[in-house]
Amino acid sequence: MSKFILCGLTTVALIAGMAALPQTVHAEAPMVKTQAPGYYRLMLGDFEVTALSDGTIMTPVVQLLNDKPAKTEATLKRNFLGPTVETSVNAYLINTGSKLVLIDTGAAGLFGPTLGDLLVNLKASGYQPEQVDEIYITHMHPDHVGGLMAGTSMAFPNAIVRVDKADEDFWLREANLNAAPAADKGFFQGAIASVGPYVKAGKVKPFDSDSELLPGIRAHQTHGHTPGHNIYIVESKGQKLVLWGDLMHVAAVQFADPSVTIKFDTDSRAAAVQRKRAYADAARNGYWVAAAHLAFPGIGHVRTEGNGYAWIPANYAPLP
User: Fold this and answer.
1) Pairing of strands 288-290, 239-243
2) What is the pLDDT at residue 35?
3) Residues in CB range of 303: below 8 A, 6 or more apart
């Protein structure tokens, strides 16, 4: 009998023997149900930009947008979204090489249990809150200032807070809180509780015009969404990033039709004008854009599309 036949018989015998062995049954693996840390990083010239997620919140956008509900629902459906949209809350950390600047701070506990992840994600990204030198607030809504506090302590004990004086005067004034409708009082209370301790500590330095806050970072007034809403323009080595704050909220609707406003606006007409200007400038000049409520990390470009605009998210790339 040839050695090839013997080898074949041996292989068959081994397979038969293995089949006769008792089979080990593995229990079904439980679902992990966690997500990776929420940070995303890119280089802008010599500056390092880190997007930080504070979490997401389900938003009933059909009720909140100032447009015909049927039209809004149809637009959302075309974008594979329902009438309630999972909405990101983003902040951005800029390391200039000499200063560490945080733009907005998330909500902490002011908007419910699905938000408040900013500090965890900041630490996961390799930084500590004590390292933050300055904090630039786009506006004083709770989902942008709540993260200034960690319980009863200042979350960023070494940071100076910069904010437009018009927002400081509006949101921190007790008389405005008392005069506000019951449904709006929480906005004032959140601002007072979050920014107030920094004011008392002498750590709030307001500005009242377009201002260069640091070399390469400047504030540009875009009043409308709130009385002192600002965007921040970051530039290094010929590269540019504009941080929009709440210049827009619902990408699926407001890029296609920038005239659609939201009930959170203090002055909806002015907010729409600022949004249209920002879209047109971003599309014309092709720089990076980031916004608080675009799907995380909320960084990308804008281009014209028909009578409106389209959002092009950043293509994922590891740092060199």
Assistant:
1) parallel
2) 86
3) 283, 309, 310, 312
Q: Which of 284, 314, 139, 320 is nearest to 225 (CA)?
A: 139
Question: DSSP letter at 129?
Answer: G
On whether the CB atoms of residues 50 and 125 are closer than 8 A, the answer is: yes
Residue 298: CA atoms inside 13 Å, Cβ hemisphere, count? 33
DSSP per-residue codes, 249-287: S-HHHHTT-TT--BTT-SSHHHHHHHHHHHHHHHHHH--
Amino acid, res. 26: H
In sequence order, what E strands does 60-128 have? 85-95, 100-103
Predicted confidence at residue 238, as pLDDT, reads 97
Domains of the chain: 35-232 (3.60.15.10)
Core vs surface per residue 161-200: b (16+ CB within 10 A) or e: bbbbebbbebbbeeebbeeeeeeeeebbebbbbbbebbee
How far is it, in rounded angstroms, from Cα 144 to Cα 193? Answer: 13
List, for the chain, all residue ranges whose pLDDT scores fall below the cut of 50: 1-15, 18
Contact 245, 291 (CB under 8 A): yes
Determine the pLDDT at residue 285: 98
